[in-house]
């Protein structure tokens, strides 16, 4: 058996300690699979004295994270510090510049600086790997890079944020509104104290940008991801969706739009109505799932735990096994020079069914006003439900349109915006095609 | 860009022509991902004159398949001939002996001779790859070998035969009995003229043996797979299962039984009742799905098209991309010398809920006789339905037991075997745990 792969861990939060536990518990098995042992040499974190429930005495403690990048006895630095810039980015640049491999779970950093880091890794002929950055323990980076490698992929989408899926599943199960479930999730530790990265769709957008680049062979373009979160979803939306045969999920979707000859890239994170016949409708709790549509494979689905110390550690160590086996290629599946810079596609001409929910003053002529605006925009209605909402005399109107361009929705909402019948902003959710 | 990977195709059925179409259609993309082009050099099949809908004129036609193994201008032989022995096996041995790589979709050959071929490949330092042998276009071999590499996997299971899943889904949807759906599936080309490999579970057993070896790091043991098919399932079974909250699926399951200290391997293909909350209950039509339970990753699900020319071609070419990238290790994820030879676990002490259906003569005391036999075997009933079946005075009794050892089921059936109340053999199906 060859010499061990020597690694250093920067960051000893739950994922970092998970990596230590995994490497200790499965060491013999990993050595059999990787062809050589994986050995932790050094560790670093902000606070040395903190009790993390793992024994660190066998590993060299380093106070200055920067030392890891240049230490002569380290082959791979594993970064679990987080943050798109700052110390994590400095460590990545220094490690790769020094010709060492770099493994990270840091989706924000890869979404913002992945292109630069991938080029740096290539120029130094070393590995940059980030399986743990997308969908926790699900080996979807590998699935796209290797398993689906023979395919042209024109669409990749999925449930990329466990917190949102947990909140939506719980809202559905308990019939509660968003804010109630969020407080409960925070109390139980399923949601962060500041949950905006999760619930506003930013975290899912980071992951989507990474998946899109790998799927399409395009330069990563996080700035091109439109993101809307789940804050404004009511228990009533979930109930109406259910009555119509749908479940609401936060979906990140990236697609190549080749309609006008040239390839354009469309990327959006938003709550969608998912038909019950679609596998994503059955993904509940903190589970993640990614669908990639290949021109030969057809629809591939990868599903599993989207977060958590142990699943994320599983993804980190999968990258280490690849490095130990010397099975590492370019970070985004092809050399940076081969990645295309695709223009962004506009959403206005995208065609699909749409769910629109409005809270309206319950008075004569409201429905006539709304339906006239829709007619003028060329938008036709497939189904409509009007229900009373409360004692204040307002009513809830929920409808699903026939397939039409998003521009028609925009036009309708623009016409209705000044209307005094509308109480608050309408909720618009697209319906995921089967 | 490096020199092309030169391949030869043996077998030009639907999958073979699919591989040609894929390599032609996606050639530029494949070269970007693989770092070099993949080039078809030679082809062979039984009948040269047959019109296959693809233009073969650019490729050297070889009449004697054996030539491919030794031709100096071929790096990889792709075998799509089929058959566990015979010409396919000869070609595999000769190609690997000659130090060339070998890619196959031949599950029967790998199930029977995979251990021998893997050793041969290792001794010649060349690659043996068979992604297409399991679950069509789903990259599950790669998922287990690479993505889940850090995990101890103690259980792998799934829907491994598209024909059976298509038949079961259709029986459910249409309320028809097995034989009616089979004839229809045969007429439409979804089932073979001789469907026994599929519907008796042999095809799924081949795939299960391969998955088990990869998951557990154990020597492949096809002889140790118990296989039962779907021939005896009635429309009434599906209806009763549905009433009880289950769907019937043909499940291949392999598990490490570590109860008595030593690790034993259990492998079985059989129809099971799958709870609606389980993702496999929602896999319909010819789709396949595989679940692997890792000790860190938790439950990983891989789902997609289980057969068909294009998905299978996607898997074949994924292997070729790996070879082009020089990212190939031992066939079963670790060197043959590291694979453990595990003893087979007995089924009798396995514990679970079970569905039992009997057709009985509708006369006084039948239920008393059955329930007494169950009581004597220590088996308790969770739910029971008795319905009339037909005009002949027989009745159908369907029940689900509480969790108990399989031995108790065996004992009950043994007691009841001589009974004149039973019309035909009882149907026993285990319930898949959530």
From TrEMBL, chains A, B:
A GO biological-process term: threonine biosynthetic process
Listed pathway(s): Amino-acid biosynthesis; L-threonine biosynthesis; L-threonine from L-aspartate: step 3/5; Amino-acid biosynthesis; L-methionine biosynthesis via de novo pathway; L-homoserine from L-aspartate: step 3/3
Keywords noted in UniProt: Amino-acid biosynthesis, Methionine biosynthesis, NADP, Oxidoreductase, Threonine biosynthesis
ACT domain sequence ranges: 355-434
CDD domains recorded: ACT_HSDH-Hom (cd04881)
Any one GO MF annotation of this record: homoserine dehydrogenase activity
Family the UniProt entry places it in: Belongs to the homoserine dehydrogenase family.
Species whose genome carries this gene: Sphingorhabdus lacus
UniProt protein name: Homoserine dehydrogenase
Binding site residues for L-homoserine: 192
Presence of keyword NADP: yes
Protein residues bound to NADP(+): 10-17
E.C. designation(s): 1.1.1.3
Pfam families: ACT, Homoserine_dh, NAD_binding_3
Binding site for NADPH: 107
Matches recorded under InterPro entries: ACT-like_dom_sf (IPR045865), ACT_dom (IPR002912), Asp/hSer_DH_NAD-bd (IPR005106), HDH (IPR016204), HDH_cat (IPR001342), HDH_CS (IPR019811), NAD(P)-bd_dom_sf (IPR036291)
Active site as annotated: 207 (proton donor)
